[in-house]
Automatic annotation (TrEMBL):
Organism encoding this protein: Mucilaginibacter gracilis
GO molecular-function term, one example from the UniProt record: hydrolase activity
SUPFAM superfamilies to which the protein is assigned, alphabetical: Arginase/deacetylase (SSF52768)
Keyword Hydrolase recorded: yes
Protein name, UniProt field: Acetoin utilization deacetylase AcuC-like enzyme
Length: 307
C-alpha cells in the first residue's frame, strides 16, 4: 500500500457473522471468511479493520425509515407476515446486527472522505424501504448513510451505483422524491423483487447475460451518469450474485468480468476524484469459496488502484 498516505478501511464486527438457527438457508459464513481471506493473503492487516462501534442511533435511522416500522423491528412486534417477507427468524440479536451494519456504512463514509474509498464487509441491504423489509434486508444501510451525509451537509449530490443482480427496490423507493440522490440499478429483469420500484435509472437485463454485453452496457452508462449527476459522493453496491455459479442470479458472468466491473467503477471514481463507499451485497453460489473469492476481488482491485 505504497501509493500515498491513504489506508484501506473496512468495517467489520463479529456480529456480522451472527449464526441463524440451524437449517436456515441464508449464508452468514461469508462475512467471517472475507476478512479472514484478506488477512491470510496479506492484503490487509488488523489495522485495516475497524469496528463500527455499536449500533446506529435511532435519530439517524429515522432519517430514512418510518418510526412505526423501526419500532416494530426494535421491539420485535413486527407481524409474522412482514417477518416472512424479510425472510429471517426475528431476534434482538438480528436487529442489533442490522443496526451495527448500518453504523459501519456511516463510519465507512468518513473513512472514504479521508482515503478515497472505504468498505463495509457486509451491507448492501437495498431491499429495505421506508416502512418495509424484504429479501433478507431490514435496514437499508447505504440509504441510511446517504441521508446521514445529506443531513450533516457532508454531501450535496450522491450517486448510488447498484450492481447487485437484484433491483435495489428499497433504495429506489426511499429516494424517489429526493433530487440530491440519483439511484442507478442494473439488474436481472426476471429476478427478485418481482414488483420493481422506479430508480432514477433502471437497466433491466435478460437472463443469461454474458460478460461482454454486461460490461459494454456498464462502460457506456456509468461515465454518462457521473457527468450528468455530478456527484460529490458515490455508494457502490458490489453484489457478486451476478456470477454464473450463483443459484439465485440467472446471469452467466465469470469472476473475471465481475472483477472488471469493480475495476471500472473504481476507475471512474478515481478519474472524477469522487470518494466511494462500498457495501458487499448478495452472493449465493453453492460453493462458498466462489462467493468469498469474488468478493475479495473487489478488495484486491481497490488495493491495486488506490494503495
Amino acid at each position: 500500500m505504497g501509493k500515498g498516505c491513504y489506508m484501506l478501511k473496512i468495517a467489520y464486527d463479529p456480529i456480522y457473522a451472527f449464526q441463524l438457527p440451524e437449517g436456515h438457508r441464508f449464508p452468514m459464513l461469508k462475512y467471517e471468511l472475507i476478512p479472514q481471506q484478506l488477512l491470510h493473503e496479506g492484503l490487509i492487516t488488523a489495522e485495516n479493520l475497524f469496528s463500527p462501534g455499536g449500533k446506529i442511533d435511532e435519530a439517524t435511522i429515522l432519517l430514512t425509515h418510518e418510526k412505526a416500522y423501526w419500532e416494530q423491528l426494535r421491539d420485535l412486534t413486527i407481524s409474522a407476515k412482514d417477518a416472512r417477507r424479510i425472510g429471517f427468524p426475528m431476534s434482538a440479536r438480528l436487529i442489533e446486527r442490522s443496526a451495527t451494519i448500518s453504523k459501519g456504512t456511516v463510519v465507512a463514509c468518513h473513512h472514504a472522505f479521508e482515503n478515497k474509498v472505504a468498505f463495509n464487509a457486509a451491507g448492501g441491504t437495498h431491499h429495505a424501504g421506508t416502512n418495509w423489509g424484504e429479501g433478507f434486508c431490514m435496514l437499508n444501510d447505504q440509504a441510511i448513510a446517504a441521508n446521514y451525509l445529506l443531513a450533516n451537509n457532508l454531501a450535496s449530490s450522491i450517486l448510488i451505483v447498484d450492481l447487485d443482480v437484484h433491483q435495489g427496490n428499497g433504495t429506489a423507493q426511499i429516494f424517489e422524491r429526493e433530487s440530491r440522490v440519483f439511484t442507478f440499478s442494473m439488474h436481472g429483469a426476471n429476478n427478485f423483487p418481482f414488483r420493481k420500484e422506479h430508480s432514477d435509472l433502471d437497466i433491466p437485463l435478460p437472463d443469461h447475460m454474458a460478460d461482454d454485453e454486461y460490461l459494454s452496457i456498464l462502460y457506456d452508462t456509468l461515465p454518462k451518469l457521473i457527468a450528468q449527476s455530478k456527484p460529490d459522493f458515490i455508494f457502490y453496491l458490489a453484489g457478486v450474485d451476478v456470477l454464473a455459479t450463483d443459484k439465485l442470479g440467472k446471469f452467466d458472468l465469470t469472476k473475471q468480468a465481475c472483477k472488471a466491473r469493480d475495476r471500472f467503477v473504481f476507475e471512474q471514481c478515481i478519474k472524477n476524484n469522487i470518494p466511494v463507499q462500498v457495501s458487499m451485497g448478495g452472493g449465493y453460489s453453492p460453493n462458498v469459496r466462489d462467493i468469498v473469492d469474488a468478493h475479495c476481488n473487489t478488495y484486491r482491485v481497490a488495493v491495486d488502484l488506490y494503495f
